[in-house]
Write a structure and sequence with these properties.
The complex is a heterodimer of chains A (57) and B (512). Chain A has 57 residues and is mostly helical. Chain A contains 3 helices and no strands. Helices cover 76% and strands 2% of the residues of chain B. Chain B has helices at residues 2-19, 24-42, 47-80, 83-90, 98-116, 121-132, 137-149, 159-168, 172-226, 235-253, 269-291, 293-298, 333-350, 358-389, 392-404, 408-423, 426-444, 448-463, 467-476, 483-511, and strands at 303-304, 307-308, 311-312, 318-319, 322-323, 327-328. In chain B, a hairpin with a 5-residue loop joins strand 3 (311-312) and strand 4 (318-319). Classes of the chains: A mainly alpha (57), B mainly alpha (512). The interface between A and B is medium-sized, with 29 and 28 residues.
Chain lengths: 57, 512
């Protein structure tokens, strides 16, 4: 699994970076609307992406 | 306990990067996740605090990354045309004096390369040139490493300085002067160290005058440009360029005995001018935008900005309402660099400097180089903003203020140095520690600009010791696997330089 992910390191980095730039825009509006569940879902996305980065050597 | 918890994300990054040799992207992700969990579980940062922290962080991240992306793009545009190689070929022809070669190439040219490129480029470009001039591989790595450190903060077209402004919210008018002074003095000492590394005390005694002249001149030029409204982006670059200009007549006075490259063809003036064209175009664009109000106004149309409401953690720490970082996209330094890259590419393309497929290699090389650092900067900036908005930075600052008290000015540069060593960059160190240093200085009543000058100067000088940079130097000098040897030798020089900044910070704080 880890070796397989390793082959896609650049894509994982690019995806994580895209999420870390796009998700905060959604977070801004979700927080203004006090939609906590949306905020946690979006944060979950960013957390998952960063966990992937952690996992890839 | 709160202090230890607040410190944990930073300690984690340090441990992972230095202890386990993780890359900055992985370590940054770990630090970000740790900060997020600790802020939520122990500092009462709820959904609203964390959400707005991410959006604030996005603006800061873009502000920092726009410059890094575009600076590297310009470097690739110029390098692909062979311009860096041409400049590198021209310099050794000036003198056969080894000490003078080390100064001109390993100090002045390294400053110029740091001004325009950064990202380990000075060592990667210069180490092979010095090896070609019969310097030992170890000395060939040591010399440009020492030689470019002083130019890191205002180098890479000001990306590290921009990060300091972004992290602290303070303008260039407050921060640039002290930082440029501290770094200028460190640059002068670096020059003597380069002479020493090249030829021992005899070289220092023989070359003290050119070192003093060049060091004072480059330091003064960097100060002058950095403190002139809006030109801090090109301060190190102009200092390096001015240094190179002065080096030509100086080097002629120290030509040495040996006949240089007998039979080799001299480079024509036209070739050299063309090689420098990219940077002339950049300076022209930056000066035009800064000095011509009509152009500045025309580029002022498109901003990215957001207003943030007041948020409070469950423990009562308040982040006041206010605007986030305002990005004037069309006249952002990153955009000016992108314009310069485009014009330069057009010029080199029109004059037939590129081989087929150059555009693809330029874009591909840029993306490959900046992708990993983009992820690490995004995660580290977000970590720093979460820590700030959750009150973790405040907790650290109060702990530091109580713990070190009056010794803080002496310690501030070492904190910056530690940050650069562990994260591999002056930019990251300023992002992670900028707000912490500012808050601690506020609590203790020390002049903020001086403490932050100590932070960024310590970080700039120590960034050359970062394992990531040393690995680049070692690989280009054929010393792969001997990084520990390089670091041991470098540590003595860099330790002395940071100690000097530490003493300087104490003296200036005391005098003020």
């Amino acid at each position: 699994m880890r070796k397989h992910l390793q082959k896609h390191k650049s894509s994982i980095y690019a995806g994580t970076f895209a999420l870390m730039t796009l998700v905060p825009i959604g977070l801004y509006y979700a927080a203004q609307l006090e939609a906590s569940s949306v905020v946690w879902t979006l944060l979950g996305l960013v957390i998952s992406a960063n966990l992937l980065v952690l996992w890839v050597r | 306990m709160a202090f230890v918890l607040a410190l944990l994300p930073i300690i984690l990054i340090l441990f992972l990067m230095v202890g386990l040799r993780w890359g900055a992207a992985r370590a940054g992700a770990a630090g970000y996740l740790a900060a997020l969990v600790i802020a939520f579980l122990f500092f009462g940062a709820g959904a609203e605090v964390l959400a707005f922290a991410h959006t604030r962080a996005l603006l800061l991240t873009l502000d920092v990354l726009l410059i890094i992306w575009a600076a590297f793009l310009l470097y690739r545009v110029v390098d692909e045309a062979g311009a860096i190689e041409i400049i590198g070929q021209a310099l050794p022809r000036l003198t056969a004096d080894r000490g003078m070669q080390a100064l001109v190439i390993g100090w002045v040219f390294a400053t110029f390369l740091q001004g325009v490129g950064g990202f380990g480029v000075p060592v990667a470009v210069i180490a092979p040139i010095l090896i070609g001039l019969n310097f030992s591989p170890l000395v060939a790595v040591i010399i440009p490493s020492i030689g470019h450190g002083w130019a890191v903060t205002f180098g890479s077209l000001g990306s590290s300085f921009n990060a300091l402004m972004a992290a602290t919210g303070l303008p260039a008018e407050i921060l640039a002067g002290p930082a440029a002074w501290f770094l200028g003095l460190a640059g002068l000492i670096s020059g003597f160290m380069v002479a020493y590394a090249a030829g021992g005390w005899s070289a220092v005694r023989r070359l003290w005058w050119p070192v003093l002249f060049l060091g004072t001149f480059m330091g003064f030029v960097q100060y002058l440009v950095a403190t002139t409204a809006g030109l801090w982006t090109i301060a190190a670059f102009v200092a390096g360029l001015a240094g190179l200009t002065i080096s030509f007549p100086l080097a002629l006075r120290y030509r040495g005995q040996r006949n240089l490259n007998p039979g080799s063809k001299a480079l024509s003036g036209r070739v050299l001018v063309l090689a420098l064209a990219g940077y002339v175009i950049l300076v022209t664009i930056i000066l035009a935008v800064q000095l011509v109000p009509a152009i500045r106004h025309a580029l002022d149309g498109f901003h990215i900005r957001a207003y943030f409401p007041e948020v409070q953690t469950a423990l009562g720490y308040v982040t006041p309402a206010g605007p986030g970082r305002d990005l004037a996209l069309l006249r952002h330094t990153g955009s000016l660099l992108a314009y310069a890259s485009l014009v330069t590419f057009g010029l080199y393309w029109a004059t037939g400097q590129y081989h087929p497929g150059a555009a693809g290699r330029i874009v591909g090389g840029t993306v490959q180089k900046v992708l990993s650092s983009s992820v690490s900067i995004a995660s580290m900036v977000t970590m720093a903003v979460i820590m700030e908005n959750a009150g973790m930075t405040d907790t650290l600052a109060r702990g530091l203020a109580e713990g070190v008290g009056i010794a803080f000015p002496a310690i501030a540069p070492w904190i910056g140095a530690l940050g650069a060593f562990m994260t591999g960059s002056n930019t990251n160190s300023n992002v992670v520690f900028g707000a912490l240093q500012m808050r601690t200085a506020e609590l203790l009543g020390y002049p903020i600009a001086i403490i932050l000058a100590g932070q960024t100067a310590g970080a700039a000088l120590a960034s050359v010791l970062a394992p990531t940079k040393v690995v680049v130097g070692a690989s280009t000098a054929g010393m792969a696997g001997r990084e520990g040897e390089i670091m041991r030798h470098l540590f003595a020089y860099i330790g002395l330089l940071v100690a000097f900044i530490s003493i300087l910070t104490v003296l200036v704080v005391w005098l003020l």
